[in-house]
Amino acid sequence: QVQLVESGGGLVQAGGSLRLSCAASGRTFSSYPMGWFRQAPGKEREFVAGISWSGSSTYYADSVKGRFTISEDNARITVYLQMNSLKPEDTAVYYCAADDTLLSSDYVPLEPYEYDYWGQGTQVTVSS
Question: CA 117 → CA 23, 24, 47, 68, 96, distances in Å?
């Protein structure tokens, strides 16, 4: 059974940093894109960052560009989201997701419906 497990969330002051991890079990996603999404209370789930299966392409939401970085380990078992210069508006539950579809090597899905597997989420709270 495929599982994605996020970790690394927590409470941090504005301007601080956190690194989220997403570990895959049951299989690796070496040939599939991975993404990070977030959902704040009362809001829809939104795309944060994504990486193509080849690792050659990354894409970021405008709101996090220049502050967040998505990366992966060589075995593609763990995907990371480094979050710097955090703001109170970054407060949300963060989810990692995997798209179980063979796509071109530089394609990064941006919509939640494009992803097939989801983690349980990890809470990130940024205090002002």
Answer: 12, 10, 15, 22, 8
pLDDT at 1: 67
Residue with tokens 């894109």: 33
Neighbours of 123 (CB within 10 A): 12
pLDDT, tens digit, for every residue of 78-125?
999 999 999 999 999 999 999 888 778 889 999 999 999 999 999 999
Distances (CA, A) of 1 to 48, 75, 79, 98, 117: 26, 19, 19, 14, 11
Residue with token string 């789930």? 45
What does the buried/exposed string (b/e) look like for 9-29 if buried means 16 or more CB atoms within 10 Å of the residue's CB? beebeeeeebebbbebeeeeb
| Residue found by looking up tokens 């990366």 in the block | 71
Pairing of strands 3-7, 58-60: unpaired
- Three-class SS of residue 81? strand
